[in-house]
């Protein structure tokens, strides 16, 4: 049955036709680009997961941006330094090489160290957690920018990058659902690991003893300590574990999504991830869904500039500056924060320093 006349009829309705054209454009361009959307969502989801684990433990971490930037730089510079030392061909599985694996490990280690610094300032010294995170962001931007300029003068070779897995065509060509398989499987190792981490964190946070203790510490630390939970130790551990996910997100940017490092390459993703965390109501699954939404708008902004829609919708969009579409994800961040923050309730002890009661 040919439905073209029906579609043309809907598209020709004054005013409402633009809505139908927009829906048709989204249906036409988003499924074929699902793997790119997932690639855009990967650093956002990992950073949002970092935020979830921190704030469920009662620690606000706006230094995720700086942590990711430091990890991205570390992964790249370690890969650059180690590449000349190893001549083995990349593995057929994700293009693994020893320099890449060591670069990834170094990126995670740096993220843990930065997170430990934030934990020390926020938990032990009880410094304002917003200020602590801001210090980390500013320091990471300055140090990585300076070191990148020094290293770039020697024109180093690339650090290498993880290769994408190519899913079987039998899966990706399935009607209706094939694009979903392509979305999650047409990725490198870090991109493919995201869904595993998200589901695992959701189960552990809400279906395990550790998760119950974490939520207790984030909601009522005084009561948690009365039943034998070491609040300080648990917060330290969770902030450092959370940092590992931010480190993965940063490493993704420099050794999986690209084979390079650029100054400020996180480009505000750490802050968008915090918005995704809030929109997802401090749950891993919700944060991931929100990260996908933000990633869709990031990808859509690029697609509109590359392949704008036709018809009246294309004419209407041609009057809008191209920079507007690049700004859509950040505008969406502001709108969501303005509309959702008041309705989303964070953990009760979120951002509140904890001091043990005196034994006397």
Characterization of the model:
This protein is 69% helix and 0% strand. The protein has a single domain (34-309, 320-340), classed as ABC transporter involved in vitamin B12 uptake, BtuC (Orthogonal Bundle). The termini are far apart. The protein has helices at residues 4-11, 16-29, 34-56, 64-82, 98-124, 129-152, 169-172, 178-185, 189-207, 209-219, 221-226, 231-255, 269-279, 284-306, 311-318, 322-340. It is mainly alpha-helical and 360 residues long. It is built from 16 helices and no strands.
Task: Set out the fold topology.
Blueprint: H1 4-11, H2 16-29, H3 34-56, H4 64-82, H5 98-124, H6 129-152, H7 169-172, H8 178-185, H9 189-207, H10 209-219, H11 221-226, H12 231-255, H13 269-279, H14 284-306, H15 311-318, H16 322-340
Q: How is the main sheet built?
A: none
N-to-C SSE string, H for helix and E for strand: HHHHHHHHHHHHHHHH
Number of strands: 0
What class would the helix/strand composition place it in? Answer: mainly alpha
Rounded average pLDDT: 88
Low-pLDDT residue spans:
none
In short:
The protein has 16 helices and no strands.
Question: Keywords, please?
Answer:
360 residues, mainly alpha, ABC transporter involved in vitamin B12 uptake, BtuC
